[in-house]
Design goal:
Low-confidence stretches: none
Number of strands: 26
Structural class: mainly beta
Distance between the termini: 136 Å
CATH class of the largest domain: Mainly Beta
CATH topology of the largest domain: Immunoglobulin-like
CATH architecture of the largest domain: Sandwich
Oligomer: single chain
Mean pLDDT: 92
Radius of gyration: 39 Å
Largest sheet: 8 strands, mixed
Shape: rod-shaped
Length: 289
């Protein structure tokens, strides 16, 4: 409609057609994968983005850093969980677009494991305890061990370590303070592992000998005796009648002893020697016949 100064007017109907703005279009995200727990910049490319457009990753609003009709740059906060999420752009006029399940959040630690050629694992530690004085032989079993695999006990190297094969490493403990330690495996060519509270260093107490059965046997030796008491250790040693006796560790309260040859008619003392050198004696405990 046009108006003249004298008030006259003329109108042409349907002379102009308004075209509403096209909805936005979202084509590409760069990057499309984000690490878990890390804030990251994200670029969105497409068309029809309006000034003041709002961007969401799932339910999380994203801070707009840069914007044009074809490109938006946003700051993504540290997202709390792994998985795929939608990305949505909403223009001020209410029109919106979305790329479903287009943004992947991944755990970098899990990716490292997936990409590694070898992943170390500990399946057993035997024995799980030993004296503070050290010297205990320990067998670490697991998978993917190599000659370059290093062993740490409580953050420090043991007295010695020997690679046997891909499933077994043998170590000898050093002297430590009493307590429980983790066992960690490291290898430059693999993902390491930790067995938590896997070995206990125990204070060494003198062995206590309560009973020996049977209490007599042949002078030729070879008899098997049951030694009962307390504070026995896997590395406890024995002497019977002054001679070294073979000792088989059963538990902290039971040992099996194989008698050495002795003099017929003599009563032999039993001496138990702890790894730190402490000695316990049970006098005249066994009769050689």
């Amino acid at each position: 409609t046009l108006y003249n100064p004298d008030g006259q007017r003329t109108t042409r109907e349907s002379a102009f057609e308004y075209h509403p703005a096209a909805p936005p279009r979202l084509d590409v995200l760069e990057p499309s994968r984000l690490p878990l727990g890390q804030a990251t910049r994200l670029a969105l490319e497409g068309a029809g983005f309006q000034p003041g457009a709002a961007v969401f990753a799932g339910q999380f609003p994203l801070e707009l850093l840069e914007g044009s009709a074809e490109r938006l740059v946003v700051q993504v906060p540290a997202l709390p969980s792994v998985g795929l999420t939608d990305v949505r752009v909403i223009n001020p006029d209410g029109q919106w677009c979305q790329l479903p399940a287009s943004l992947q959040v991944y755990d970098p630690a899990e990716q490292l494991i997936a990409e590694a050629e070898r992943v170390l694992a500990i399946t057993s530690v035997e024995p799980p305890r030993g004296p503070c004085s050290g010297g205990t032989g320990v067998r670490i079993r697991g998978v993917n061990f190599s000659k370059e695999t290093r062993v740490l006990m409580g953050g420090a190297r043991p007295q010695s370590s020997r690679w046997v094969d891909a499933k077994l490493i043998e170590i000898v403990t050093d002297d430590r303070e009493p307590g429980v330690v983790d066992i960690e495996l490291r290898d430059e060519g693999a993902v390491g592992c930790v067995a938590l509270q896997a070995f206990r260093f125990e204070a060494v107490e003198p062995a206590q000998i309560d009973r020996v059965t049977p209490n007599r046997g042949t002078a030729s030796g070879g008899e098997r005796l049951c030694v009962e008491g307390s504070n026995f250790l896997p590395d406890t040693r024995a002497r019977l009648g002054g001679a070294v006796a073979q000792l088989i560790f059963k538990s902290a309260t039971e040992l099996e002893l194989v008698t050495p040859p002795g003099q017929a008619g003599s009563l032999a003392d039993l001496i138990l020697i702890q790894p730190d050198g402490q000695r316990s004696t049970k006098p005249r405990v066994y009769l050689y016949e």
